[in-house]
UniProtKB/TrEMBL annotation:
GO terms for molecular function: hydrolase activity, acting on ester bonds. Residues 1-20 form the signal peptide. Gene3D superfamilies: alpha/beta hydrolase (3.40.50.1820). Keywords: Hydrolase, Signal. This is Esterase. Belongs to the esterase D family. Pfam families: Esterase. InterPro entries: AB_hydrolase_fold (IPR029058), Esterase-like (IPR000801), Siderophore_Hydrolase_D (IPR052558). It comes from Allosphingosinicella humi. It comes from the Bacteria.
Length: 279
């Protein structure tokens, strides 16, 4: 056997134990997951909770952002990543708790009923938004407040059908949250019925201070029409106490807008105490 072959054989023998027994793995943990029994939905549902880096070190209370489509295989990881990025000491956000509310049948849970036969055929389970809203308001929020140090400041974030749910909640049940972020909301749903009601619903709102962020990409007339109608209603009749912003992003598409706009909205609505921003 040549010296080179002998050396190679010895190296393989030396490396074999390392290959056979890799170092013990340690899980990467960024939060906690819970299965909650829900009377509103008649089933158990999963929520995922992210707490910021400083949470374990004191008694501070934190704002809570409720994230729709918040499953670990949905939007939980990338939105909590934005919260972590902004909450670094050199970042531009205050630290927040993020509660991901998982959807199971989002076409049901995030939409209002429709009388349109074509939509009923295409989306046979649709129309469960009111029950899902009760689940969040009456079951999820009390659970989070009971088990985490929350400040009482609440927000909600959603995109597409989840954005539709955000807008509907803001218009029909505005006291549910303090801050609303709707990205590319599917306002085309039910022939734009929600946008058509917006002016009347805005006129009924109280004077409590709230924030609303709307954004949409270059997504075609079907998506844009309902947004234009909603923005017109806000320009004409938004309550004086409402801090609302419309940020169209025509450089983005429906599939790319979420990350860019979500971070902008979070930075605006959760600025560090020593920086200027909303609320």
């Amino acid at each position: 056997m040549s010296a080179r072959a002998l050396l190679a054989a010895l190296m393989m023998l030396w490396a074999a134990p390392a290959l056979a027994e890799p170092p013990a793995a340690t899980p990467i943990v960024i939060g906690q997951s819970y299965r909650l029994p829900s009377k509103a939905l008649g089933a158990e549902r999963t929520i995922n909770v992210y707490t910021p880096a400083s949470y374990a070190g004191g008694g501070k209370r934190y704002p809570v952002l409720y994230l729709l489509d918040g499953g670990t295989d949905q939007d939980f990881h990338h939105i909590t990543g934005l919260a972590q990025l902004g909450g670094f000491p050199w970042g531009s956000m205050e630290e927040i708790i993020v509660v991901g509310v998982e959807t199971v049948d989002r076409r049901k849970e995030l939409t209002s009923p429709t009388a349109d036969p074509a939509l009923q055929k295409e989306f046979p389970t649709a129309g469960g938004a009111a029950d899902f809203r009760r689940f969040i308001a009456d079951e999820v929020e009390p659970f989070v407040d009971a088990h985490y140090r929350t400040s009482g400041d609440t927000g909600v974030l959603g995109e597409s059908f989840a954005g539709l749910f955000v807008v509907e909640t803001f218009l029909r049940a505005p006291g549910t949250f303090d801050r609303y972020v709707a990205i590319s909301p599917s306002l085309w749903w039910d022939n734009e019925s929600l946008s058509k009601e917006a002016a009347d619903l805005l006129a009924k709102q109280d004077g409590d201070k709230r924030s609303l962020w709307l954004s949409i990409g270059d997504e075609g007339r079907e998506m844009q029409s309902g947004m234009d109608r909603l923005v017109a209603a806000l320009k004409a009749g938004a309550p004086a106490s409402l801090d609302w912003r419309y940020e169209p992003r025509h450089d983005q598409s429906h599939s790319s807008i979420y990350h860019a706009t979500a971070y902008e909205a979070l930075r605006a609505f959760y600025p560090k105490p020593d920086t200027e921003g909303s609320r």
